[in-house]
Write a sequence for this structure.
């Protein structure tokens, strides 16, 4: 994909979906062009960063004219792989897993959870929120049949590493880890940690320290 060829900074990559969503809105409103200032206000990123971000993709903007919405849109679409559907697997159909199955990224048209796995015989062999739940012993076969290389991990902490090993063995290359465990996986496997408790703790910490600052004043 284009993403593999262009080396873009992580911060830029993170902002791409923001730009993309706003461009869709502009396009639906029938707007042909957009200035970096306008974009800046809409997505809350300073215009210097926007110009720098866009410069990584070559000369897409013209001075005094702004950016061509349709051009940008088709460009981002390719970069973000919006034309290709990516199926992902979910492993561990507990409370969090079920919530994710039910959510199933409905707002994005290019990703979806297409299969789930668990060891609990009461859920395996059933369809939850439109997604079939398989037994863990079918992991390798299903992932290979469906050409899935990304998995969301929502098993209990105690099973996190063992399950990771099984996923790696089944050919998984990317893991979205919802457990608080630091997983060990080969260097070729990318792990994205999503620790909700830590995130919330960080938020609480920030609010507390701000309150302390104010109290001291
Ligand atoms: P949460 O709210 O964290 O999703 P929960 O309390 O609903 O959790 P957990 O005990 O955390 O349930 O288990 C989550 C799911 O993971 C359960 O459906 C459980 O059957 C499943 N699970 C447990 N061990 C394994 C394993 N080794 N492989 C696959 N799934 C597992």
């Amino acid at each position: 994909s284009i993403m593999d060829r262009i080396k873009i900074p992580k911060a830029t990559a993170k902002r791409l979906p923001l730009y993309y969503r706003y461009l869709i809105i502009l396009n639906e409103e029938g707007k042909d062009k957009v200035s970096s200032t306008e974009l800046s206000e809409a997505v809350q990123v300073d215009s210097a960063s926007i110009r720098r971000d866009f410069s990584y993709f070559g000369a897409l903007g013209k001075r005094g004219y702004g950016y061509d919405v349709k051009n940008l849109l088709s460009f981002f679409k390719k970069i973000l792989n919006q034309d290709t559907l990516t199926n992902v697997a979910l492993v561990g159909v507990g409370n969090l897993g079920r919530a994710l199955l039910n959510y199933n990224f409905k707002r994005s048209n290019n990703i979806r959870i297409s299969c789930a796995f668990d060891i609990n015989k009461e859920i395996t062999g059933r369809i939850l929120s439109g997604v079939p739940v398989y037994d863990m012993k079918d992991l390798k076969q299903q992932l290979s049949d469906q050409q899935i290389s990304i998995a969301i991990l929502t098993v209990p902490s105690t099973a996190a590493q063992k399950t990771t090993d099984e996923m790696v063995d089944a050919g998984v290359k990317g893991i979205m880890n919802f457990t608080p465990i630091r997983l060990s996986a080969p260097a070729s496997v990318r792990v994205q940690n999503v620790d909700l408790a830590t995130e919330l703790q960080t938020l609480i910490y920030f609010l507390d320290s701000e309150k302390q600052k104010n109290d001291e004043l």
